[in-house]
Every structure is written in C-alpha cells, then in structure tokens.
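Cross-posting from the modeling subforum.

Setting up a comparison between two proteins and wanted a second pair of eyes on the formatting. Protein 1 (sequence, then structure tokens):
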Amino acid sequence: MAALAVIVVAVGCGSSADDDATLTVYVSAPLQGPRADAGHDVADGARLALVDADGKAGGVAIDLEVLSDATGGGWDAAATGANARAATEDTTTIAYVGELDSGASRTSIPITNRAGILQVSPGAGAADLTSDSPASGDAPAVQESGHRTFGRVIPSDRDQGEAAGVWMADSGISSVLVDSDGSAYADSLVDGLDAAPSPPEVVTGRDPADAVYIAAEGPVRPAGAGTGDRGILGSDAQLDDPRALGSNSTPVRLTSAALDPTQLPPAADDFLAAFEAAYDRAPGRYAAYGYEAMAVVLDSVGRADDPTDRGDVVDAFFDTGDRESILGTYSIDGVGDTTLRRLGAYRIDGRGRALPEREALTIP
C-alpha cells in the first residue's frame, strides 16, 4: 500500500518522478468479433513498443493493461465504457491507447477526457473526434472538459477521401457518381474528395460518370455498379468484405487509412521482422499503428516535464514534432491529428481478394 500511496501523489499532484513508481498504459481494442485479428495486431504492436523501450519511459517503469472493447458481434459500448472507467479509476494510469473504431472512441473519449488522461487512437478516423468543424480551434463536443486530450497516429476519414481523389486524378477519372449511405463517415469521405488537388466532378442521378465512388460505413454492393467504365472506388470500410462488391468486369480500387505492411517505409523493416518472430504470424494493417500509438505515448511520457503528471504528458504529446517513426516522419497538429499524408491502396482481384498496390497514396 505504501508504494501505491506514492503513485497516487505522483500522478495526482504532478510531483517529480519516483524511482519506485510504476505507471500504467491501458490498451483497449477489439479482441473478439469480426475485427479481432486487427485488435490483436494493435495489442501485440503495443507490447513490442514497450519491449523496445525496455519497459520504461522517462525513467519510470511502465505496465501494460490490455482489455477488449468488443464482444462476438463487434465493438461494444458497455465493454468500451468499462475499459475507460477502469483506466480512470486506476491511479497509476498515465495514458490510454484506443480505440480502433470511431464509434467506440466516442464512448471512451469523454470518460478519459474528464480524467485528463492522454488517449491515442491507432485506427479511429472520424472527424468529430478532433474537431467539430474544419475551422474550429475549440475542443470538440466529445472532449467534454474543453481541454484536448485525444489524438491519433492514423490519417482521418477526410484524408482518406482526399487520397481517393488523388488516385482518381492519377487514373484519369474526371467524373464520379457517389453512392453514399448518408452517414457522417460518408460525408467526411466526400468532403475529402472535394478537397483533393484536382477533384473529379461529382454527378448525380443517371448522368454519365467515369466511375462510382462508394461512401458507406460497411461493405455494400454499389447501386451504380453499372455506371462508369473505369471502375469502382471505395474506402477501407469495403475491405472488411470486398466480395460484397460482387463480380465486376471493371477495376475495383479501395483506399485504406492504414498502410499495408508492404507499403510501410524502410524504417519499419525491423518492426515487421520482430513482430513475425515474436508472434509467429505476419502483421496486418493495424499492427504498425498499435506499435506507434504506444511508442508515441512512451515518447510523450519521456519528454514530459514530469513523466508522472497526466497534464504534462498530454502537453508533450501535442508538442510532438518531426517524429521519426516506423510510419514515417510526422508531427501532431493543434487538434491532435497526425500530419502523415501517406495512405494505403488496394485493388480487388476477380476472386474478391484485396491486393496492395506497390506504392502507397500520397496526398500533396
């Protein structure tokens, strides 16, 4: 109990680091259900980051607590909320890595934000998590305290739409029929598409178009599949089940906020080899993002004025600049978004398999 008392004082009052202190980082990811493979990749990537840091940050020992935010059906609000509350009730908690899904993040962020805990997502790209509007400098509604404590190491949904626009321009697509499900996710994709350097003309109804762009939260068969002779484009929501797109004679191309492991920069080579050696499997798309979310948390703890003070760690995270990482060199901007502008790209073959392009998509 004496050691615990020291940690309560250190974390709660912002005193200098104690040599005997141990801090905890919570990782919340879907370890069950349809995204379990990605969730385990995130958790195992985070474990490797802690190993590479020799289990410490800022001279303080770090423990890792991994929890599932999902049931057999997918991410679960009750499980996610319980994870976030467990983190806030643990006086040793210094940061929280999660969630993989934006919906789950909307559940956990208000809880961790009220406790002033840094939360870094490896996969949630929703625009409203970092800003209520592109021009707003205020903390979004989901960060209820009014102070920013959330950020991410993956490009946003809007970035993904912009990357699709870059791919269309490179492919000679000048007009596109948007097949939208009307969700906020779809709206972000279309906003990004419109923001591309040379955006395609968006047509409606039965007007001819070069291609169809699917903007939907889940796998769908596009209503306009017969429109456009240059194919179908979509987002990583379609990567969950690309066979739902049906059999098409035209090309199917999908963007991904996460780079495929084959598209990561050379700086990731050691990580990829270590992951496969440690877990006897090849890493999926989100393994590197789990690693980097944990790595930047540890880096923020190490750079904080007081590594045991939650507010100092948050400040250090938002001061992240020109960080050299396995994802590439990036900074964290004023709202908590990464400045990385490289995203994944896939083509779907005739058997419904997603095959990564040789080159990632780069937004100028």
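Protein 2 (same layout):
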Amino acid sequence: MKKGIYILPSLLTCGNMSCGYLSILSSIDGGFTRSAWFLVLAVAFDMIDGRVARLTKTTSGFGVQLDSLSDLVSFGLAPSVMMYQLVLSSMGKVGIGIAILFVLCSALRLAKFNVYIQDGDEVHSSFMGLPTPASAGLLLSFVLSYELFADHGQSLSFKTIPILMKSMPLFFKTMPVVMVILSLLMVSSIPYYSFKKINLSKPKTFRLLVLVVLLLFLMITFPQNIIFILFSLYVFSGLIGIGVKYYNAHKKRI
C-alpha cells in the first residue's frame, strides 16, 4: 500500500464488482435477462483488468485481493441469487442449500487461488479446478437462452438454434444438479485450460484465423446460444481431459 494503488486496473475490477451487484438487484426484481447481461459485462471486465495490469506491469497484491473480492460478488453471489430466484426457490430448503453451496465453493476456489499466487507460483497453462467466471458463465448463458425460449420467439432480435432451444426445458429441470456439479468442480483439482498465457502478438496459423472469424460470425448470429455452448464445452473440457488421462494410464497398465 505504501507504493500506492494502480488506478486503471483497479477501476476495471471495481466495474466487475459493480456489474455483479447490479445483477443481484436485477435478479431480486425478476429481471433475469438483465441480470445475466450484467454478468456478461462482469466477465468482460474480469478478462480485461488482469490483462491490462500485466501489459502495463501494474500488478500488485492489492489488485489480486480486490479481484478476488469482485469475483466472489460477481461469480459467486450474483449467479447464486439469480439461479435461486429463477430455479431453486421452489425447492425449499434444498434450493437454499444448493445456492449456499455454490457461494461457499466459489469462495474456497478463490481462496485457494490466492494462496497459490502468494506462494510465488506463476500462472501456468491450466487452472486447478473450474474457474469461478466459467461456472458463472455457464449459468448466465443458460438464463439468456432460457429467456429466449420462454419468450416463444416473440420480439426477438436474435436468431436461435432450434435443437438447443427445444432442450431448454430439460436444462431447466437439471439446473439444480448442474449447480452442485459446478460447485464440486470449482474445488476439485481437475485442470482447466488458462487463456492468460495466450500471446496475440505472435504469428498464428491461417486455420486459427478462419476459426476465429467463424466463431465471431456465430456469436453475432446466435449470441445467447453460442455463449451457452462455449461455456458448456469449457466445463466439459476438464472432465474429458481427466477421463482421457485415466484411460491412457489404464491402457498403459494393461
């Protein structure tokens, strides 16, 4: 603190926390779509603040702690309140327990990450456990797609993927189980890919450029649905990776 506080990354982190709080207020008022979009903004702020701090060499212990507090609000409390109001409230005490479990596991995940950083370990190519922004991302993207389904295609400014939209009622019924699984994944040791080491200034392959352009096109055409698919794939990527690892280990023993 004697060296001062870096204003720019701290402001971005405060933007993250502010969006999380606005999301909570929107969920309480029943504005679930608005609540989810506030969390999308929170994810954007969370992606930007760390990168800005690293590029400008303004990382600090204060920034790390502030970022964790912001993540707890935006990716622990806010999605938990949103899903409780939308899905879990009808389940009584069980719903309350699931909502609390999600917040507690988010806090434990962030505390573990802080200890990892304080021990002097560098950011590697993977996280140990599902990152809190990713778990919140799956929930917010579900809400965005489900709200489109609930509107029955009326007054929609974006196109939707029919097969995915037909599955929304099933996703709605399984969301309590999904929240429990996400909570456990956050405190697990399953590795998840970290995008923090990606260097956009280095030359990339032409195929990657084509893939990025295609992804941007899909995002513009089916924004809510593609966000849901991307977060779902990321969550499954860790499970698939650990499954492949155990399969290869078992194959070698045979």
